[in-house]
Design brief:
Blueprint: E1 3-6, E2 9-12, H1 22-29, E3 36-40, E4 43-45, E5 60-65
Parallel strand pairs: 1-5
Antiparallel strand pairs: 1-2, 3-4, 3-5
Length: about 70
């Protein structure tokens, strides 16, 4: 099963459920992209790239949500 590690928590996905992009992942998590900073495998992903940033099995993702 494909896996993403999100903020230290291992999450398994069925093949048809795996989020294709950073934007899709944020949507599934109910997060507003303009309030989130994402780091994938140690590199910050620019907010403008969320919609096209392809996710792969095994990636380590850190999400920080700003609250105002």
């Amino acid at each position: 099963m494909p896996v993403l590690v999100i903020n230290g928590t291992r999450t398994e996905y069925g093949a048809a459920e795996f989020p294709a992009t950073g934007a899709e992942l944020l949507s599934r998590l109910g997060l507003e992209p303009r309030h989130v900073v994402a780091e994938v495998d140690g590199a910050v992903v620019p907010r403008a790239a969320f919609a096209t940033y392809a996710l792969r099995d095994g990636q380590q993702i850190e999400l920080v949500q700003f609250v105002g």
